[in-house]
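Case study: DUF4148 domain-containing protein.
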Amino acid sequence: MLKFMTISMLALGAATAATSAINTRIVTDEERAAHEQEALIIQSPIGGLENKYWFNYRANINEARKEVVSDLRHADDMEDTRRAWDEYRGELSHERGHYVKQMAKRGFRYGTVSVGD
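Here is what the predicted structure looks like once written out:
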C-alpha cells in the first residue's frame, strides 16, 4: 500500500510540474509596458463631460484591444508578438494623450496624483 501511495504521489507531482511548465509563458518587456499603459486608461470622462472626444477615446481604446488580440493570434514568432504589444502600448498612450489634449483645449484639465518618492 505504501509503495502504491508513493508512486501515485510521484505521478501526481510530475503531472503538476508538467502542467506548470506548460502554463508558464514568457512575458516580454513590450507586454509589460503595454499592461502599464492599460492601467493608465482613463475610466471616466474628464470633467464628467461625455462628449465626442470621450466617446472617440473609448471607441479607439476598444479598437486597439481588438487589434492586439488579432495581432497576437496571427503572430508567427516572438518578433511579431513583441511588435503587437509595442503597437498596442503606443496606441493606448497616443489615444490618452490626444483625449487629454482635446479636453485641455476646452478648459478641462486632467491630472494625476502621486504619493511617495
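For the exam, be able to explain this: The chain has four helices and no strands.
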